[in-house]
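pls design
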């Protein structure tokens, strides 16, 4: 594996992680669902220490066991597993959330990032493609799809197509800047 591939892969994971933190805060702040207060306060702040994280996960596990139809609790649990690098558990929590809301592009994308972390690239791509089909303005899913083509499948031409598609939809966001950088790296053969 080349140094550039490793950097691209790490960048993709970091972006996915940050998306999970931001999406988790957005979901918890914007819903009427019952989510533990400590989890709701997390928002986009610094991650708690491992002991706090474990306590929060335990609280969410209890909540989802008592109220298995609590969409926001499943999302928060998936996000916390995501942040704790418990990829398989995160995938499972997001699956429960998707049973309740199968057309949620943010959850599909977060689950896709976890599938990628587990090495299930086809499943990750399926999630990213579905998220983008559901919401053509969901640029994170499109960007993540490009990362898989570039870093994991070693298909730079397809990756460039995906990043160019993103740039056709948006020229000004941080993701657009990152897509331009990826196109430059791919064009330079890095």
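designed seq:
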């Amino acid at each position: 594996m080349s140094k550039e591939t490793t950097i691209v892969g790490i960048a993709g994971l970091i972006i996915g992680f940050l998306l999970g933190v931001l999406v988790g805060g957005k979901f918890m702040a914007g819903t009427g669902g019952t989510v533990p207060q400590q989890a709701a306060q997390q928002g986009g702040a610094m991650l708690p220490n491992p002991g706090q994280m474990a306590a929060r996960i335990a609280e969410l596990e209890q909540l989802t066991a008592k109220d298995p139809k609590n969409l926001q609790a499943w999302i928060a649990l998936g996000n916390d597993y995501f942040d704790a690098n418990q990829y398989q558990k995160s995938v499972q929590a997001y699956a429960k959330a998707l049973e309740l809301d199968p057309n949620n592009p943010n959850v599909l994308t977060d689950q896709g990032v976890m599938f990628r972390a587990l090495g299930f690239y086809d499943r990750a791509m399926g999630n990213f493609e579905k998220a983008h089909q559901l919401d053509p303005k969901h640029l994170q899913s499109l960007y993540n799809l490009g990362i898989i083509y570039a870093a994991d499948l070693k298909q730079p031409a397809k990756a460039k197509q995906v990043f160019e598609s993103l740039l056709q939809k948006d020229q000004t966001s941080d993701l657009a800047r990152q897509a331009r950088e990826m196109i430059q790296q791919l064009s330079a053969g890095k």
